[in-house]
Amino acid sequence: xxxxxxxxxxxxxxxxxEETRRxxxxxLKIYYGMDAxxxxxxxxxxxxxxxxxxxxxxxxxTKVIKEKSLTELMDKEHEMVKQIKxxxxxxxxxxxxxxxxxxxxxxxxxxxxxxFRKMEDEMDHLATNMASxxxxxxxxxxxxxxxxxxxxxxxxxxxxxxxLQFLFELPARLNKCIEMQAYSQAVRYYAKAxxxxxxxxxxPSFQGIHEDCVQIITQLAAKxxxxxxxxxxxxxxxxxxxxxxxxxxxPAEELCDEFLDHARHKLSSDLSELDTQIRLxxxxxxxxxxxxxAQTYLNxxxxxxxxxxxxxxxxxxxxxxxxxxxxxxxxxxQQDDEGLDAIxxxxxxxxxxxxxxxxxxxxxxxxxxxxxxxxNTILVRALDRFHRRLQAMNKLIPNTDFSRAGTEIVSKAAxxxxxxYLQTLKQHFSDCLTDVRQNLAAPRLLxxxxxxxxxxxxxxxxxxxxxxxxxxxxxxxxxxxxPDITFAMxxxxxxxxxxxxxxxxxxxxxLHHINQVCHDFCEGVNDRVSVPPALLLILARxxxxxxxxxxxxxxxxxxxxxMLADKTPMSSVTELTNESKATAQKLLNHxxxxxxxxxxxxxxxxxxxxxxxxxxxxRNVRAVMKRVVEDITAIDSQVGQLYEEGVRKERSxxxxxRTFSHSVSTQRRxxxxxxxxxxxxxxxIQKLFSEKIEIFSAVEFSKVSVLxxxxxxxxxxxxxxxxxxxxxxxGLQQVQVDTHYLQLYLWRFVSDENLVQVLLDEIVCSSVHxxxxxxxMEPSVIDLICERG
Length: 789
Description:
789 residues, mainly alpha
């Protein structure tokens, strides 16, 4: 590649010498801006400025040698050498880069010179042609100037003759078009000549043509109406017929009615098919006229998704086509009669609303038949497709909102599904109770005690089954709020569904149902047969677990899965847990009363059926007392499976060895009372200063508290029965033996052994008061009988 200096030399014509080098140096300085820099306002005249225009190397060198040391001079030299090399490299790079630009610019200028020469030639040629055209145009204008009026007149006559020819040939043309069934062409011919014929119909030459055309058009209108009323006519044929009849000035209002009546037959047929599918799904026998037995046999019911697809693809598609055709034929035509448009629109709205109400009724009936299914996937997909199609229909008719009715159907379907699942949960809870009863009854069938059933296992199985069922139901209901479902994203559906239907209508309502069933067990109105006491105990523990953790877990799970907001007032967790806690307390209290009354019944019968005046001297503990201890021991084992031990008061060392040789009231009598004082009076005075025993007080959730309540009821019944009997000497002594036996075993079941002692003392005191010959048995003899018995 040639150097820039060579190129410049060539362009100067080959001149050499000092003048050429000066010119070349000046051009380079101008190109790289060196001359402008030296002339700038910021230029300095310092001779030591190496970048300035007035730089003097000798002065700069002298200054540097004087001011710098040898080491600094060597560094400065090294630095300047590097700068010189860098400047040389940059200068060379710039030269080579700009050399290519010089070449490109030169080529461009040469091409522009050639292009401009061609353009000048073409412009000259164009100017010549324009001059020729102007000359020819002037010659033509001069030639036609005299004949212009004549040509215009002849042209008008020719046009009039063509119109007259068209009018005279119009009846034949109309007949030919009718024969060829080119009805639109015939109407177009008639519409073109209608005004002229009507204007000149008083003239004899035009009167016949007018009458013939009117007769032909009347026949054409009759044929169009026949086609319009034919049930087999396609929508395209109907549209064409209506359009032609309207062009023939037929009454638009009458045509609207006829068009809608014709469309009603097809749409009613679609609705009839939907009704048939609903009846098939409901299990009804459907026989269609004209169907063979084989076709009837193969006519299987559709699932909900197929049903919705059939309605959308047939009924909704047809009604959309009807609306579009109606708009094109009656509403979107270029006419100024606004009153007619309003009437036509009103007719369409009433017609569509009537059919849509029927369709909504069929869809709602079909959705109701889906209650017995367990999975919601197909139902939700069908409802979503139904909802989307209705949203698209809103744009066809102004001021209508079919999606609102569709949303109501969707919301009702979701509410019905929730109600169905609630009934499923209630039935499942009833089945769980039945299973518990059967498991509790199985040990009895084997001849074992009820306490043989594993209550802890039954409780855990029931709790697990209830939680799993609720989780399964919530998982199924999540299909209604899936992100790909259109109506699930609508706030008017999602909020009420998640809050009112799922949380309140399902989960909270189910918790209320469980509490109500438990209350019914306590009231005795839920079952004709007696409730097993162990079932009451299990339910009490179940409600207590609900209070402690289960309710909070279920509500939290529901709110997380359905993304509930806290804006809507809802039942609080505290209210629900308090309700479950109260139910658990009521169940446990009822359990204590049932078990206490069972034992009390045994004691009452044993007291009432015995002749206490004529009984023999006691030699053994009565069997009923042994049965009472056995039953209480079994209850203790039963309650211990579900509840903790509880808190007991400190026992005395001789709890199991106390013998009732005398009445406690007598033994605790103060020394300042004389023996002549009535014992009954002393006993009543003593009771005033003793602690009152609540027999039917609330029971705590512990084994000791439960057993204490049962024993209090049993001993209180025993005492009241004793007060109603009269005893002989040996009857009194038998009561001593029985109460001592109970004391030996019952003290270990209660929270305070003094409670048992007080009640047993009261029994002995009552026996003494009711005894005709109150002679007490020796304590050693009582101990011997109890140890032997």
